[in-house]
Amino acid sequence: MGRKPIHQNIKPSFFKVLLGGFEKQLSIPPEFIKHVNDKLPGNLYLRSPNGTWWWVKMKKIKDGWFFRKGWNHFVTYHSLKVGEFLVFYYKGNSKFSVTIYDRSACEKEPPLAKKKRNGHEEVESNSTHVTKKAVEPGESSVSKKKRIRAHKIEMNGEFEAVCLLKTERPHFTQIMRTHNIFQITVPRAFGVK
After folding, report:
1. What digits encode the pLDDT tens for the residues 64-79?
2. Which of 3, 8, 10, 138 has a CA positioned 20 to 30 A from the CA of residue 93?
3. What is the reported pLDDT for 126?
């Protein structure tokens, strides 16, 4: 990515082919660091292809910058292997969207997020995976008004994360409600395309 993008509204990106030693840290290209200047803080968030967010600490070692703490959990969760190819799209505000390609040069199928248990999304039991606590109906320590507000904030954050998704494949976005767990209405405009 040695050059600045032609259009200023294009977000910077870089790619990495996974070679030996990537399990505990991953180097960030120096040209990418120069391009974003001092816009990157030490703490970053990586968005997986399945929509989960991962906290990763960026650290300077000698003359280079690396994804360090938390990176190993991202690697384990996605079963990353030597020869796979990752594209990091910087979305601003310390957030990257990551696309993963396997050795066949096709997009790798992401792990499915596991079901919620005890109000928490159970995907990976480590402190670097960013989880959101769902509001339990019987909680008495928090007022109903605060619970509703917390639920709206959580939904807005999730919806915002979905809106960041850019794909060439046809898709539509819909917020799931309890009444459409077993049935969903496909928008007419989507069906026509």
Report:
1. 889 999 999 999 999 9
2. 3
3. 38
DSSP assignment of the chain equals: --S--SSTTSPPEEEEE--TTTTT-EEEPHHHHHHHTT---SEEEEE-TTS-EEEEEEEEETTEEEE-TTHHHHHHHTT--TT-EEEEEEEETTEEEEEEE-TTSSBPPPPPPPPEETTEE-S--STTEE--BPPPTT--SS-HHHHHHHHHHHHHHHHHHHHT---SS--------GGGSS--PPPHHHHH-
Distance, CA of 131 to CA of 54 (rounded, Å): 9
Report which of 25, 27, 17 is spatially closest to residue 82, judged by C-alpha positions: 17
The upper half-sphere exposure of residue 109, i.e. CA atoms within 13 Å in the direction of its Cβ, equals: 2
Q: Cβ distance 30 to 92 under 8 Å? A: no
Cα–Cα distance between 34 and 134 in angstroms, integer?
Answer: 40
pLDDT in tens, 46-67: 999 888 999 999 888 887 889 9
Q: How far apart are CA 51 and CA 158, in angstroms?
A: 9
Question: Which of 166, 164, 185 lies closest to 176, judged by CA?
Answer: 185
Structural tokens at position 25? 């840290």
List, in order of start, the domains of the chain with CATH numbers. 13-101 (2.40.330.10), 135-192 (no CATH)
